[in-house]
Amino acid sequence: MSSVAHTLFVPSFNNILFATDFSQCSQMAFPYLRAIAEGYGSKIHMVHVLPPEPTLQVPLDTIPELVVDRSAALFAMEAMLGRKPFGRSAFTTTVKRGQLWQVLSQQIVEKQIDLIVLGTHGRHGLKKFVLGSVSEQVFRLARCPVLTVGPHAMDEKVATANFATILFATDFSYGSQRALSYASSLARCNKSHLILLHAVSASMGIVPSNFFLVGPAAVDESTELIAATLASERQRLTELIFFGVDGGVES
Amino acid sequence: MEELNPEVIVDCGPAAETILNIAENKRANLIVMGAHRASLGSFATHLPWATASTVVRQAHCPVLTVRS
């Protein structure tokens, strides 16, 4: 039975990367960063990436929001930290110049990052928000989970993060099992009400190959599938508690 | 072990729209979802990247995307 333990996946948030541009948007992520870091005893690694050396042709004064100067960045970092946004959680700060993803991916490896937290910009003046290019890049390229505090998440300003209700959206693909581990871990840690949602796709004429029923008739099937998924997750956790992972976890 | 006793909802409709609607109705504080890069042969069985992207953009709460 010990071989079972090797297949278990236990989510961890030991090292959180917080990529910030010092904007108001990115500060909206603070309550969430803090809540997760405190719940999981994580260390927060705050990173600001300075754009590559500007060429003379680029009129930088047209983008006043962008912090391009190292000393300005350090000053902004100080100002941000002065408000003690992370409570008692340990943190490190890094200001580096370079291509955004190059710098971040290096930090991810170096600091053994297992969660990235982002506050995202919405483009002003557009009815439909588009994610800032930074967020879009990180969101697409990162292999570890990404917590994005999107433009509309800021509609309700909060001082302390509330994880009272967690919605887990699943399609029962192989990959969603991993996401479920995160959802249930966070729900346990925060004593949240967990909702499992399966959106049965019936659009675009695409019939998923693993769905023999598509449309409203699939509801019953899905409910059973969810129950089965849950049971297997419960089983995995029970095994984890009994057998431990690499002998490191005890009941 | 503490029981989670989750609430189960199955809804029919376009994924992103459904997720956003339910999140709104249930006043979810966090959305967790798996995300996949679309790839040939498996695209229809996975929550495509576009779904996750739409949810992140429009959700009124933070979204945790977990890559498989």
Q: Helix and strand layout, with pairings?
A:
The complex is a heterodimer of chains A (251) and B (68).
Chain A: H1 2-7, E1 15-19, H2 24-27, H3 30-40, E2 43-50, H4 70-82, E3 91-97, H5 100-110, E4 115-119, H6 133-141, E5 146-149, E6 165-170, H7 176-190, E7 193-200, H8 218-243
Chain B: E1 7-12, H1 15-25, E2 30-35, H2 49-58, E3 63-67
Parallel strand pairs in B: 2-3
In short:
Chain A has 251 residues and is α/β, with parallel strands linked by helices.
Helix content of chain A: 25-40%
> Which stretches of chain B are poorly predicted, pLDDT < 50 over at least 5 residues?
40-46
Q: Overall pLDDT of chain A, averaged?
A: 75
Oligomer: heterodimer
Shape of chain A: elongated
**CATH C-level class of the largest domain in chain A:** Alpha Beta
**Gap between N and C termini of chain B:** 26 Å
* Widest β-sheet, arrangement of strands of chain A: 3-2-1-4-5
- Sheet with most strands of chain A: 5 strands, parallel
**What structural class is derived from the secondary structure elements of chain B?**
alpha+beta
How many runs of DSSP E, i.e. beta strands of chain A?
7
Number of strands of chain B: 3
Report the span from N to C terminus of chain A.
Answer: 16 Å
The average pLDDT value of chain B, as a whole number, equals 79
Q: Approximately what portion of the residues of chain A adopt beta-strand conformation?
A: 15-25%
Overall tally of domains of chain A: 2
CATH architecture grouping of the largest domain in chain A: 3-Layer(aba) Sandwich
How do the strands of the widest beta sheet of chain B line up side by side? Answer: 2-3
SSE succession of chain A: HEHHEHEHEHEEHEH
Second CATH tier, the architecture of chain B: 3-Layer(aba) Sandwich
